[in-house]
Write a structure and sequence with these properties.
Chains A, B: Keywords: FAD, Flavoprotein, Oxidoreductase. Chains A, B: This is FAD-binding protein. 2 copies of one chain form a homodimer. Chain A has 4 domains: about 90 residues, 2-Layer Sandwich (Uridine Diphospho-n-acetylenolpyruvylglucosamine Reductase, domain 2), CATH 3.30.43; about 120 residues, Uridine Diphospho-n-acetylenolpyruvylglucosamine Reductase, domain 3 (2-Layer Sandwich), CATH 3.30.465; about 110 residues, Alpha-Beta Plaits; about 100 residues, Alpha-Beta Plaits (2-Layer Sandwich). Chain A is built from 15 helices and 19 strands. By secondary structure, chain A is α+β, with helices and mostly antiparallel strands. Chain A starts with a helix and ends in a 12-residue tail after the last helix. The first copy, chain A, is about 35% helix and about 20% strand. Chains A and B meet through strand 9, helix 7, helix 8 and helix 15 of A and strand 9, helix 7, helix 8 and helix 15 of B.
């Protein structure tokens, strides 16, 4: 049955004047995200609701006309999860970007989903608090997007993932009904944890329209930054493992491999790598930052390593930026397919070593940086041209199989979206895969919310 | 259709020799937990599987014969969630109590569900780690039970609830199939978070047969304990609020009211209360414990307050035991109905004050202690006799309505079980209640797992 697309566009336009956009030039951006994937064509229409009621109206019209909805934040996703195509409504939450409440007494904030993570944290700072989720995209990605993806980042080993930083959500279901899941309290055990279920569901279960966020007081103490250069990647990984085994909890622990260092040297036209094969960035915060940093330096000092420790902001920024510039430096070399596996921390070296073998086998370039505190690796394929070549997908497929073989996961923080659907069942197994699809059907029996994503 | 109960008992006995028990004197304990609720009669049989395969066998036989299963740990629940009655199989996991793996490199432990929380932590200590969930029952409750209830405790404001301390679970479904949910890695975003869904599901979605737990390194620094006595409860609550507002994060912050102090004075035959109307216990740990404690003392010092600060273990234990003896002291006064609401922290005083009004209205005794760091109150009804009198349920019902009115929840950490079913819909709303029941049906289409509980 063909969709009555004219009716949908008319109904949305009439119901929500000033909130719709269907000019091709203005909706073309919704056919892509930051994954490199592009949909088959333009979506039907984009709607920019400004209230929960308007989101409900969109969902009601979509439900009545059986029209798919792709909910969208800032479009910074790396897995194609927010890409929209023909016949689909784009539900942009970018105009719902207000902070509704900040409470120091309850250590929480209530926000609309379209606010940028960085903007929220700027506002929270004057209240002496922060929201811990720290994806690399934080200055350009929305809180709602972070929640929908269960975003990770650099700080997770110490400060947790997004799931641990959300208390409650208001969610509009596919048919327009509004539910509130979770609790405004720190504790709450009434029935199933639908709030946690919603976090990371990639727009497939409902539209997140309001977020009650768990905040933390600003970290006290002076931050100490260490940059360590190693002759061998194995030594850097062994150093990171020793830090974890010793019971230390740095805020940041990032490992950068030789391929990435080579790109950085070229990018800056100077020896960023200092001739080393691996670089480990460690940042220690909190009241014991100096004691922790001293012990970290001790553990990283070994034959062939150079360890720099600083509290100077400029020098610290230089050490941090070696890691932060990894992707810009690689982008200067070609198009990137940024992958996102996670393995148990003690399998990190095995993962790096197997990635080297896959690189040789497929004659590809894989530059890898790694959140060494939590075993989340970003093997990044560098290639020429727009489309991901078949042999790179084949190599990526081996990387995913490797992650599962080592007891890890297909995706640490980027999600499944479109790009990893074909491997999801390998990780979940048929039984869990079926359960997940049945849960999807409970929330969205018409199958209109972000169809074709995840499963 | 009557159940072929003889067939079930015969099938289980034949399939699992040495694992079953049906003598009345040996299964009578399963008709109660610590809630005071007693089921209508003896269950059919109790099974004590010793492996995952044996759990699967129990579930298969139950499924084939359409017989309900009540999964059971140590039976320390306070909401009737593990109480079994006529026609039901008790699936005791107490023999599955081994630690399968402890990894410092990955900061995780893999355990069977029947291990006691306290026993696990004793074993972890020599590896320099601990598992943070800290219910008051920790020495007598199982890890599996803690997970099934999403247990809380004293440390949650700083160290989180059980959900934040579980990485992955193996779960046997009602029909005997085994699934693995969650990730062994710190991060993982492949599909819906069924691990979080299982945590706190009170035995209604599956049987948790193996737990991969997220551990923390042992806390460094000297622990500082403060005991503060106040002329008015409002002052104690204001002190606790000031501590939170100031950005401090004590490990423990417990508020004890006048009714409880009176019971403690009687219990010990001396003036534990020192004539005060409220007592606040604060414990600061970690590298900044002394600085935090000094600031806490400053904030609690006000007209009419007495603040004691100590690092001496004996003196510290004395201050802690004032709180720890609250329930034993109250039990000496009569039978207890221990309730468990949570409210946003800034509503704590309002909650205490309204509880006083309910107490007067129904002419009952309600002694309340409160996890002041997270707004979780335990209004405890003290009465004579075994059965909870009707007017006490009526008063309790007003307490639950109060929690919802203040933006809080029916249950911070004890769960719904049997005792709070009738109020669950008030909190969730009809739409979410229906979604939760549909999720139950996805996992347990025959409705055999802990029937009649939660919903």
């Amino acid at each position: 049955m063909p969709l009555p697309t004219d009716d949908v566009v008319t109904a949305l336009t009439e119901a929500l004047p000033g909130r719709v956009e269907s000019e091709a030039t203005n909706i073309a951006e919704f056919t892509v995200d930051r994954s490199g994937h592009e949909s088959a064509g333009l979506p039907l229409i984009a709607v920019y609701p400004e209230s929960i009621e308007e989101v409900q109206t969109v969902c009601r019209i979509a439900s009545e006309t059986n029209t798919p909805i792709v909910t969208r934040g800032a479009g910074t996703g790396l897995a194609g999860g927010a890409v929209a195509g023909p016949g689909e409504i784009v539900l942009s939450l970018m105009r719902m970007n207000r902070i509704l409440k900040i409470s120091q007494d309850n250590r929480l904030a209530v926000v609309q989903p379209g606010i940028l993570n960085g903007a929220l944290n700027a506002a929270l700072q004057e209240h002496g608090m922060w929201w811990a989720p720290d994806p690399a995209s934080k200055d350009i990605s929305t809180v709602g997007g972070n929640v929908a993806m269960n975003a990770g980042g650099l700080l997770c080993a110490k400060y947790g993932v997004t799931r641990e930083a959300v208390l409650a959500l208001k969610v509009v279901l596919g048919d327009g009904r509004l539910i509130e899941v979770g609790h405004r309290t720190v504790k709450g055990v009434t029935g199933y944890d639908l709030c946690a279920l919603m976090i990371g569901s990639e727009g497939t279960l409902g539209v997140i329209v309001e977020c009650t966020l768990k905040l933390q007081p600003l970290v006290v103490g002076e931050t100490v930054t260490l940059g360590a250069y190693f002759e061998r990647l194995e030594d850097a990984a062994a150093g990171a493992a020793a830090i974890t085994r010793d019971g230390l909890v740095p805020a940041i622990m990032e490992l950068v491999d030789l391929r990435t260092l080579e790109a950085l040297d070229d990018f800056f036209g100077e020896s960023i790598s200092r001739g080393s094969d691996a670089y480990l960035l460690v940042q220690c915060d909190g009241p014991d930052s100096h004691a922790t940093a001293a012990r970290v330096a001790e553990l990283l000092t070994m034959p062939g390593s150079i360890v720099e420790t600083t509290t100077d902001p400029v020098e610290s920024a230089r050490l941090v930026n070696i890691r932060r510039n990894a992707f810009p430096a690689l982008e200067a070399k070609g198009t990137l397919l940024i992958e996102d596996i996670a393995v148990p921390r003690d399998q990190t070296v095995a993962a790096f070593s197997a990635i080297r073998e896959i690189e040789a086998k497929y004659d590809v370039i894989i530059a890898t940086s790694c959140h060494a505190g939590d075993g989340n690796l970003h093997p990044t394929f560098v290639f020429q041209g727009e489309e991901v070549p078949v042999h790179i997908w084949e190599a990526a497929s081996e990387v995913f199989a490797l992650a599962l073989k080592l007891g890890g996961t297909l995706s640490g923080e980027h999600g499944i979206g479109l790009l990893k659907r074909r491997w999801l069942k390998d990780e979940l197994g048929q039984d869990q895969f079926d359960l997940q699809r049945q849960i999807k059907a409970v929330f969205d029996p018409q199958g209109l919310l972000n169809p074709g994503k995840v499963f």
